[in-house]
Each structure stands twice: as C-alpha cells, then as structure tokens.
Request: fold
Amino acid sequence: MAKQDADVIVVGAGVWGLCCAFACAKRGLSVRVLEADRIGSGASGGIVGALAPHTPEQWEPKKQFQFEALSEAASFWSGVDALSGQVSGYGRIGRLMPLTSERTRALAEERVDQANQLWQGKYDWTVLSSHPLVAEEIALHGIVFETLSARLFPAHALKSLVAACRALGVQIEEGQRVAEIGAHNVSGPWGKTEAKSVILAAGVSGFSLLEPHVGPMNGQAVKGQAALLDIDLGDAPQIFADGVFVVPHAHGCTAVGSTSEREWQNARLVDEKLDVVLAKAQKICPSLAGAEVIQRFAGLRPRAPRPDPMLGPVPGLEGVYAAMGSFKIGFGIAHKVGEVLADYATGNQVDLPPKFQVGQHLG
Reply:
C-alpha cells in the first residue's frame, strides 16, 4: 500500500460520518473527512430531530442496538458539547402517542410490563387518559407516554460535533467529491488519497460508489419534507400520531414532519405534501394553530436495500467499511455507529447484529 495520507478517511460529513470521525480520533487515529458539498448537506441537514425507539415487544438485535444507543445518547452529546463549547439541543423529553382504538389501548397496556423488562427499568411506558398538548378527539382511547425518547436540533448538533472533531485534530474538507473508492483509497478530481481504513458514510450517493464493486445496491433515496414553527413548547414531550412528529426544540421552536416519498421529481422542492403534514399536526396538537412557519425543508434519507442499517466491511474491498442506510433513525444511533466503525478501523472485535452486516444487503 502506498504512503498513507491519514489513518482513516471518512467519506461524508453528515452525522454518521462525523460520529465515525469523532470515535476514531478519540482512539488516537488521524482522520480526514471528505465532504462532496457542505457539512450536513444531506439527510443530516433536516430539522425534525426526533430520537425515538421501536416498540418494546418482539425484541431482537436491532431493537437492542437502538435501545443501547438511545440510553447512551445523553452522555454522548453532553460530552460533545463540553468539548466543543456548543449546544446540540439534546434533551430526553419523552414521547406521547395517542391511542385510536380499543385494540391499540389493549396493546399499549400489554407493553407496560414489556417496557419495564426490556428497557431494564430505566424508562417508563405509561398509559394516560389524556394530555393537554393532544386534542381530545385524537386520543379517545388514551395516550402512551414513554420516557426513553429524546430530541436534538440537527443543525446545532452538527455544529457541536464538527467543533468537537476539530478539537481532536480531525481534518474536515468541504467541496471534495469522491468519485471512486478502492482498497484502502478514494479518488476524485484531486487524485488518489490513501488510508489504512476508508469509511463510506456518504448517504444516498454512497450506494452508487459501492455499486462498481458489489453490483446493484437497490438502495433507496426517500424524500422527506418538514417544517419549523415559531412556537415555544418548552421541554414538553414530542408527539407521534398518524405518521407525524411534533418535536419541541430547546431554542424555542417546534419541528413538524415528515413525509416519506418513494417517488419524487425534485429532492429539494417543498410542495403541498408538507401542507398535509402541517394540517395533521395542527389537528393533533391544537397549540400549533396560527404558529408561523419559519423554515421549510426537503431532503433525501438513505434507506438500505433491507430495513436495517448497513455497517462494517465491504466484501471484496479491503480496508473499506460502510456506515450507510440511516433512514429515519440516523441521529438516534449515530454515536453507536461511530463506535462500531472505530472498532473495525482499529481491528477490535465487533459485536454487530448479523442483519446489519453489508453482505446481508447484497444480492
């Protein structure tokens, strides 16, 4: 192998790429991050920032991985903020989920004991009769309140993470589009850059970078639209109902989102589909009525070929590791993904759910 330009090259400066860089740098590795556009220009540039678990039932490795990540999130982000001197906006505010039928209420009540067991007694799953934030007609059969969910504001979190990475010596270079990846290297208009390890965390574009080596990926770019409202709900719980999130943020605004569009013409176009989401949100949470929309967002979320993240060594491509397929749970598990990829980069043993491995997504 040619002389290395760094121990680790990370392709992509979204939250997964930056968390990988942060974890590697904390282990003493030299790290360069190459971002094709600007920091957070992909899915990580969104505004919703809901960190929420799957339901506490039918437990399997993916749910355990996510639970561990959400449990560790407060410690991780407080450490990042302490190092950076910035504020990520993280807060464990919990989540409200209205119950729409007798059946959903019965299931919710069954999950009380399951949550206590599977969440190790650390977080609550409670069935309430009502909550002031949720319209009565939306919650005719009660409301679940669980205390594991959290929020952070993506732009603030990325700013804090970037400053923390740079404090550890990470080089982050914007406008450096990687055109090809190879064993222990990446190349672009500047030429070829060598490293012991290459971590591909390039979001949607990562699929096309892998295809010359592994064949058609069938990864998907799912469009999401969201809005930021000028209303301060303080540290009230987030709400999830009818596919819509309402997330109160620490800086006095509230996010609403998002669509999940498999077919679209313009990735950045905000259209009437967001108006539908906003109308639903106001019906669910009447406090939002009349609030000014101060930001609208549309972007693409990378969904791996199977409904799981795609992490670890790329078969047949020595020294290259994937951190791809964040889809809707990217911020919630980003720091744990970073630790997993840092383990691979340093040759440590990795305990990873089998369904997450790259080979499981191929063919």
